Write the structure tokens for this entry.
Amino acid sequence: TRSTRPQRLLKAVKQHATRGDPQSVISAIDHFCRHREWAMNVGDEKGCILDSVVSELNPEKVLELGTYCGYSTVRIARLLPPGARLITLEFNPDYAVIARQVIAWAGIEDKVQLVEGASEDWIPRMKEHFGIETFDLVFLDHWKDHYLPDTKLMEGCGLLRKGTVLLADNVICPGVPDYLEYVRNSRSYKSCYFKSHLEYTRAEDGLEKSVFLG
Ligand SMILES: CNc1ncnc2c1ncn2[C@@H]1O[C@H](/C=C/CNC(=O)c2cc(-c3ccc(F)cc3)cc(O)c2O)[C@H](F)[C@H]1O
Ligand SMILES: [Mg+2]
């Protein structure tokens, strides 16, 4: 039977990237998605904005909602200091299988914990199951209609502290209007928009960076 796009993306990584070299994995995926098949990775342009937010924050504890093939997982984990941890949630087992191999090929598996399951089920279990008090950074890139409910759930579970940064992909395309309205109007957040483009295209898209004020 025909392979899937994530399987073809992984094949491109294994053919063109160097084991243990995260940058070569990122470049191989970007080349594949720009010249062969588009895929919904945050991409190189928005990826540079993601890089700058991570580098400035130097987070110890990072949560990613929606692993997909692990592109942003590798982008974030390659910048983390020793001892820092990234937990990434993915409930599609076929994507998880691919992402684990992409993460392993990049050689950053010791910083990453890929949890196969739904954000709504695992957010309430972060404390007792992973010993996480609060997160320093959350990257939201899963189903767009779950950004807002999951943000409220993280608030309710006490996983956000003064200064925790929420970084949301796709706030223009496909768009997350209810989430944007919330973080931009709530007194609990200082929010700003980083204008960019939809990955591998000329369409507008951007990232919203929202600092939790407690
Ligand atoms: C709901 N709880 C979840 N828990 C764990 N894993 C989850 C959960 N929900 C989804 N996942 C997992 O997270 C991923 C979902 C990513 C969704 N991303 C997009 O749809 C998305 C779409 C576009 C796009 C733009 C224009 C266009 F013409 C077509 C597409 C661009 C983007 O950058 C995106 O991120 C994965 F697939 C799913 O299993
Ligand atoms: Mg996205």
